[in-house]
Amino acid sequence: MQITDVRVRKVAKEGKLKAVVSITMDEEFVIHDIKVIEGEKGLFIAMPSKKSLDGEYRDIAHPINSGTRERIQNIILSKYEEAMSKEVMEA
Questions:
Q1: Nearest to residue 74, comparing CAs of 10, 15, 23?
Q2: What is the mean pLDDT of residues 16-41?
Q3: pLDDT tens profile 70-85
Q4: Nearest to 33 by CA among 25, 22, 44, 24
Q5: Buried b (16+ CB within 10 A) or exposed e, 13-40
Q6: 31: Cβ–Cβ under 8 A, 6 or more apart, which residues?
Q7: Could you give phi then psi for residue 48, rounded to 5 degrees?
């Protein structure tokens, strides 16, 4: 599986949510609404989720193992940083 496209949409408001990202895998499958969040230990991603009847949030789509999650997170955060530095240069 290869991530063939990453689209970063910066969030304009202040807060922990920094961007919302869509990724395309193998030019055939897209996951929307991955969040880039500023945490106490730095940036991380949160997979798309929805609130269940018991009030808990459950991921709609997520990697099965930690290696895949880390690879997806590294690619997304790299593209996020690239988009932010490009935005600064254009300002």
A1: 23
A2: 96
A3: 999 999 999 999 998 8
A4: 22
A5: eeeeebbbbbbeeeeeeebeebbbeeee
A6: 22, 23, 25, 47, 48, 61
A7: -60, 140
